[in-house]
TrEMBL record:
UniProt feature coiled coil, ranges: none
Protein name listed in UniProt: Unannotated protein
InterPro entries given in the database record: Glyco_trans_1 (IPR001296), Glycosyltransferase_grp1 (IPR050194)
Taxonomic source organism: freshwater metagenome
CDD domains: GT4_PimA-like
GO MF annotation list: glycosyltransferase activity
Pfam families the UniProt entry points to: Glycos_transf_1
SUPFAM superfamilies in the record: UDP-Glycosyltransferase/glycogen phosphorylase (SSF53756)
All residue ranges annotated as the Glycosyl transferase family domain in the record: 136-284
Length: 309
């Protein structure tokens, strides 16, 4: 393992990272890249080590959203924005990989639009199945995410305030202070835990009736799958990565977030109706056992890696 000081300038960090990846790659039969795409792409062009890349989002769009240089959704951004030099660099890097996988079909389609010449396919994310928990329910809703604009945690807080719901927010990010201020201003019943170790996340999620994910964009959320695997049904937006997982009334519910009032009303209605909860909870657990177990994902990824030799 190598540590690179973040106080160094970004160009120097990238050069050092590329060097260390190159040195590791010449001693390796295969490379699996789940990040550092630009550095890995340059390194393996020299080492020629077969590389499988896993793309879990659009880093160019995410940087643009976080910097405030765009307010476009990921769909609009990929349709109308070139992405400039960052996109060209990412395209160059990814074309150095032998194959690319993504956790959702929508993301695979985006990657192909970037001008990637090598095969792009989908392998769903997978998680350990924890099974049902007998934890007492302290929260109506829980969400686990990076606190960034497209996760729409502010929408959840406003709905919690208006509908007198208890909400738990797990995670950290650039929106942290803004969201704390909003919750205080609205006198919302929100518990912010910050970032937690994985075992603590699972314990906290089990204390909620429903897992909520009202994002504008999702590839395929590990946190969503983990909640389902603990028998916690989900209330999600109709982002492509969410509706690929959630079947309405089977393992959770899909809500339209374009109208905040009707969205809040529907969430409150779902929470007030307990007749189907046990059925949907069981459906949540079974959906992960059947489609999103870690064993299945690892087996599919291993098969893909070995095919690169």
């Amino acid at each position: 393992m190598r540590f690179i000081n973040r106080s160094l300038t970004k160009p120097l960090r990238m050069i050092l990272t590329t060097k260390y990846i190159f040195l590791s790659s010449i001693r390796s039969d295969l490379i699996f890249a789940n990040g550092l795409y630009e550095e890995t792409g340059v390194a393996v062009r020299f080492s020629r080590t077969p590389t499988l890349g896993k793309i879990v989002g659009d880093p160019v769009w995410e940087r643009a959203r976080n910097s405030g240089s765009t307010k476009l959704t990921i769909e609009s951004f990929n349709n109308v924005e070139s992405g400039g030099f960052q996109r060209k660099l990412l395209k160059f890097a990814l074309n150095g990989f032998k194959e690319i996988i993504t956790p959702s079909q929508q993301l695979a389609d985006f990657v192909k639009k970037w001008g990637i010449s090598n095969p792009v396919s989908m392998i769903s994310n997978g998680v350990q199945v924890l099974g049902m928990s007998n934890q007492p329910k302290e929260f109506d809703l829980v969400t686990v995410s990076r606190l960034v604009p497209w996760k729409n945690v502010d929408l959840l807080i406003r709905i919690a305030a208006k509908k007198n719901l208890k909400l738990c927010v797990i995670g950290d990010g650039p929106e942290n202070l803004k969201l704390h201020s909003l919750a205080t201003e609205l006198n919302a019943q929100v518990t912010f835990t910050g970032a937690l170790a994985q075992d603590k996340v699972s314990q906290q999620v089990a204390k909620a009736k429903y897992f909520a994910l009202l994002s504008t964009y999702e590839g395929m959320s590990f946190a969503l799958l983990e909640a389902l695997g603990a028998g916690i049904p989900a209330i999600v937006s109709n982002a492509a990565g969410n509706v690929a997982v959630i079947q309405n009334g089977v393992n959770g519910y899909v809500v339209d977030i374009s109208n905040e009032i009707s969205c809040g009303n529907l969430i409150a209605e779902i929470l007030s109706s307990s007749s189907d909860y046990q059925k949907v909870s069981e459906g949540a657990l079974q959906s992960v056992i059947k489609n999103y177990s870690i064993d299945r994902t690892l087996a599919n990824t291993e098969t893909k890696l070995l095919s690169l030799k």
